[in-house]
Amino acid sequence: MRYLPLTPDDRAAMLAAIGAKSIDDLFVDVPQAARREGFVDLPRVAGELEVERALGAMADKNTAAGSAPFFCGAGAYRHHVPATVDHIIQRSEFLTSYTPYQPEIAQGTLQYLYEFQTQVANLTGMEVANASLYDGSTAMAEGVLMATRATRRNKAVISGGVHPHYVKATETVVHAVGVETEVLAPAVDAEADVIAQIGPDTACVVVQTPNVFGTATDVTKIAEAAHAAGALLIVVVTEAVSMGLLKSPGEMGADIVAAEGQSIGNALNFGGPYVGLFACTGKLIRQMPGRLTGETVDAEGRRGFVLTLSTREQHIRRDKATSNICTNSGLCTLAFSIHMSLLGETGLRDLALLNHEKALATRDALAAVPGIEILTPRFFNEFAVRLPRPAAEVVDALAQHRVLAGVPYSRLNPGAGMDDVLLVAATETTLDADIKILAKFLTKMLAD
Amino acid sequence: MSTMNTVGRPTTPNAVESKPATLTGGRGLLQDEALIFEGDGWGKTGVDLPKPATDGSDLGDLVRRDPIGLPGLSEPEAMRHYVRLSQKNHAIDLAIYPLGSCTMKHNPRLNEKMARLAGFSDIHPLQPQSTVQGALQLMDSLAHWLKTLTGMPAVALSPKAGAHGELCGLMAIRAAHEAKGEHEQRRKVLVPTSAHGTNPATAAFVGYSVVEVAQTDDGRVDVADLASKLGPDVAAIMVTNPNTCGLFERDILEISRLTHEAGAYFYCDGANFNAIVGRVRPGDLGVDAMHINLHKTFSTPHGGGGPGAGPVVLSEALAPFAPAPWVVDDGDGFKLVEREEDEAEQAFGRLCAFQGQMGMYVRALSYMMSHGSDGLRQVAEDAVLNANYIKARLSDLMSPAFPDGPCMHEALFDDEWLKGTDITTLDFAKAMIDEGFHPMTMYFPLVVHGAMLIEPTETESKAELDRFIEAMCLLAQAAKAGDVDRFKGAPFHAPMRRLDETRAARQPVLRWTAPQGSNAAA
User: Fold this and answer.
1) ipTM of this predicted complex?
2) What CATH code would you report for B376-500?
3) Which residues of chain A have pLDDT under 70?
4) Among A54, A201, A446, B201, which one has the highest count of C-beta atoms within 10 angstroms of its own C-beta?
5) Are residues B197 and A314, on separate chains, in Cβ contact within 8 Å?
6) Within 10 A of A448 (CB to CB), how many other CB atoms are there?
7) Is B374 in CB contact (< 8 Å) with chain A?
8) How far is A74 from chain B (nearest CA, A)?
9) Can you give the residue range of the structural domain that contains A405?
10) pTM (two decimals)
């Protein structure tokens, strides 16, 4: 087997050095009843060529986003990633290293994490950011738990504009520790409805901008209402590029930002791995979940970086930790950080405008299709439309023509009575020709 | 015979007593690399985008006007910045990375190539299912391999890391107790003192109180202590097997029997599955739930701390409570069940927005298919052989924590052998860095004083093991000979000297900010 360096002679010599007669001598502690002789019932060793063929055949059965007119978003976005990004993250020293437990020989990782934290803090307009969580949805769950710790209150009020999968992932975890949630009915443009639900037991309100219907909202008033009641504002962002064009959550008064960073540097990957961005105000630092990198000096007084404030974490605090999280999204944070460094502020702003431009063009094209109603009043790169037929039916039918027309809202939230709502996203990768094809097929299908 | 022209080219370096500090902060090929925020990148960009046709004015007051604070780098500058940083990292591809409990094995590049096929990397999690049949087939195949290797009937793929898998397992256990109406009375989880920190943290995260179980002198769970603590108030036990001392729990069948008798479930921390894959099936040990770190046993890259993946295999008793989504093969093709309400009312919910770590699924399946059932069994055998070889060769100079009998995939030493030398485990570890090796896991498990936990994995050759062992022996001899300075000040030869972690925690500086009076945006 090509990944196993030991030869039969090596094994014999090593067993002799150990004083064992056979390999079985090293497994004597396994109870007799649990020892398995022979191989489990699975295929045997395979060469690179065989594996490539088998997996390649599976990959070929999928319609890659880049091979078709593509308008899916709803929490995962297709952007162009510069070739440099994927090259650098495959360098051995990044790909095959681990959590920087020995900072003297992990400054590469620690410095990029420190740069990443600064980029995320500046992008979100917050004072501090951690070294990432698993993804945006788990970041939202951690945000709610953090708010309950910080306020010693027990309830989260969640807007109907938050991505339904984020809500579900959050409720699954926070209900287990007895935190209550009040989730408002889905609404295209009603983030501010959370204000009326804030009470003395509210730990936090959770809003999303742009929300799952694409609507961008100035949440400043929501922040003021939350703060007046002693509650925190959590802002969820599922499309990180939007912060290159829209007011940052920090500028609007957010206390905690839980965002998905996939859009920058990371491929669609059928849903993962992604990278959770997590930022907050300075006074909440010690309640933060996950890894933090901080600046310090070495024995010669030179600046260096270390993992810090680890007394919050599970390996020190065990059952008193702020979270059970151990791993972060290391390599995805690196991809994010490289892409962001290549963009710079100028590139990010242009990229965001290009996304907005393509979405406006898509909206204009769809607005001209008979039977389609545009629902989202203000958006970044994604908007919702109402179709005269169930959206899932239309999307499935268009897929037969290799057009990926968007995400039916009913797929995220089947019981909501919004079966006719389609979420349509466009990015800088969207071609004008793709927009024409989408409009043409929709016109034809809705006329039939 | 040498044909090299040595004129003007000294064959031996000049002997210099002490090293003068460099003038720039560089060290040989290692550049002193500034932060991206400290260069001239303000206003710069390394991408060429078309000029946008809109200025966003349709969004009015929603538009961001203030400077964001993001410098840009041209492509050559970006390449240099990150390559320079990379050279300050240790990596598996450079040398043995013997972090116990972390399973730092070789990461095959075929896996990287497969994960980047457009049919896997460039598909959206919410595309119509008819357009992602191959992706669903891959998830189904991975599930089949994991279930077969563990002898378990079900698997939840979506947990995004080991600790997330622990959360998944305990949530399933909790849901099972709720279904039986026993949740209110069962509020305790038993965890051995030697457990990973994530175990008690996860139990507390899910709302359980944690009760510690004692360990015997031979490094195993104290079954009598466990039996005395099991009862109608216990929801589950969390046991790592092979355990964090690198030992197989000999009484594992008795442990699972007692647990089930008490009406509790057996959560197994599968971090150390690498030691037994292909030889022992957790399903045969009475396990009810176990996470599998794909980034350990199945070689997906550790990537500087992630992303990981932690699928959880489940017993018949817990399978109905698995979280959404999951894949079914309904004869007419593969189907992704995304809403638990549709198919299984007992499912405990959802752990993340989408299907979990697809990129890691591809890599792990590529690894499994490459090894096959025969190769995977060899993985466990070579991993255990390598660890026992290290233990045998170092036992004369160092003190094994549990000298009797074989270890599994990792060799555990205590600091007894350093007594009287004034050198600590930390000092010893830092001196290893000077010799070119990444230290082993230190001070874990907590039950062994000054623990040094060495996990070589199966992908180390005998020659590399011998090189490592010889370095360890030389260092151990130096320690015993009183060469204290070598250890106390170490590392001397790494990119950085020892870092002040206390200062970092007391005065946290967690981001770059522009120096006062500077024009840099921030």
Assistant:
1) 0.97
2) 3.90.1150.10
3) none
4) B201
5) yes
6) 7
7) yes
8) 8
9) 68-80+344-447
10) 0.96
